[in-house]
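Input structure tokens:
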């Protein structure tokens, strides 16, 4: 995975998609609001131009996210082998385009990566991550300045002449808003600037019901979520970033025993990484979780640059570049939000993270 570039500008992407008669739309595993919003927006946009489009996502899908969709998604078991993937995808064999949104790496689209790889010429990638693998999509539009992939799709809809009016449930506008709102932490993160508020304003004018979406997406947690938050907070330690005691990074971990004892699933714990950012002097937060023994998921968040004294901000509005930090573990994302996964025991994973935090910023 490295920095990757577009080989299609927005008008070029619009022209290519305008010719599509049938497509399958994919995104990353553990889809978040932007992944799902992008899939739904792409499907609704393609249907607007009269094309047939199916969305295929890998389980598990957060039930709160799923509640925003009608019968619009098909799912695949994450453990499906090559033969059952071929079987499940047989009905999509003849599509003109495979559109991969909100990611550009093969590991993130497992177990569909081989299926995608062998149909490379038909793959169109649309993403706002800074890092990806150029071999995933033959045709790529990458814009790391977009706060969400759905923000790119808003521009694409305009280029394709699809109106954003009629923002009710099941609309293109609603799907775009879902990705934009969730990827900006409901417009709190530094990535939410004038352009994003302006787009949000257009979408609300189009009739999107943000209060309904907020209730559907953010207020459907199970009690297990807060039990896990309690466990995470009691594991929390604050590690000075590069030895600087004024800039500390919270590290929490949730072990297989925590998942077992509470009955929580990995979707119950999404977003808990953000909680320590409410503390003074905490510039970033790392959550390590191990729902199944042996594979540790790492989630990194940075506070905004405003959380540190002027002049010491890392880059692009973030206090610390957690994209670079995640890359040290083979992952990536954005300057303020990134992830990685490593095969290690939890004590090893925590020790490796603490060592990197002790080290602090490195010249890349
Ligand atoms: Mn995204």
């Amino acid at each position: 995975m490295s920095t990757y570039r577009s080989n299609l500008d927005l008008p070029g992407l619009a022209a290519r998609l305008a010719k599509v008669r049938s497509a399958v739309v994919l995104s990353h595993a553990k889809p978040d609001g932007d992944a799902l919003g992008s899939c739904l927006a792409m499907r609704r946009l393609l249907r607007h131009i009269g094309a047939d489009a199916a969305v295929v996502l890998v389980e598990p899908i957060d039930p709160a996210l799923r509640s925003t969709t009608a019968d619009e998604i098909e799912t695949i078991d994450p453990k499906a082998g090559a033969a059952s993937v071929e079987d499940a995808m047989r009905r999509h064999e003849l599509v003109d385009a495979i559109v991969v949104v909100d990611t550009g790496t093969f590991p993130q689209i497992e177990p569909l990566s081989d299926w995608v790889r062998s149909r490379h010429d038909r793959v169109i990638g649309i993403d706002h991550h800074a890092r990806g693998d150029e071999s995933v999509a033959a045709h790529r539009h990458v814009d790391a300045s977009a706060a969400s992939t759905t923000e790119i799709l808003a521009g694409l809809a305009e280029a394709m002449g699809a109106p954003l009016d009629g923002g009710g449930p099941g609309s293109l506008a609603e799907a775009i808003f879902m990705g934009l709102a969730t990827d900006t932490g409901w417009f709190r993160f530094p990535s939410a600037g004038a352009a994003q508020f302006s787009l949000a304003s257009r979408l609300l004018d189009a009739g999107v019901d943000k209060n309904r979406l907020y209730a559907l997406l953010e207020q459907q947690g199970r009690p297990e979520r807060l039990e896990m938050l309690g466990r995470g907070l009691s594991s929390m330690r604050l590690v000075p970033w590069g030895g600087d005691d004024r800039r500390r990074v919270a590290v929490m971990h949730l072990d297989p025993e925590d998942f077992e004892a509470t009955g929580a699933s990995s979707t119950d714990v999404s977003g808990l990484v953000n909680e320590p950012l409410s503390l003074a002097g905490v510039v970033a937060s790392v959550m390590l979780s191990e729902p199944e023994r042996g594979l540790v998921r790492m989630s990194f968040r940075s506070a905004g640059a405003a959380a540190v004294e002027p002049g010491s901000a890392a880059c692009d509005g973030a206090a610390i570049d957690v994209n670079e930090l995640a890359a040290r573990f083979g992952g990536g994302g954005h300057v303020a939000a990134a992830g990685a996964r490593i095969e290690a025991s939890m004590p090893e994973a925590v020790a490796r993270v603490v060592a990197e935090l002790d080290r602090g910023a490195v010249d890349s």
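Residues 33-48 form the longest helix (16 residues). The chain has a mean pLDDT of 94.
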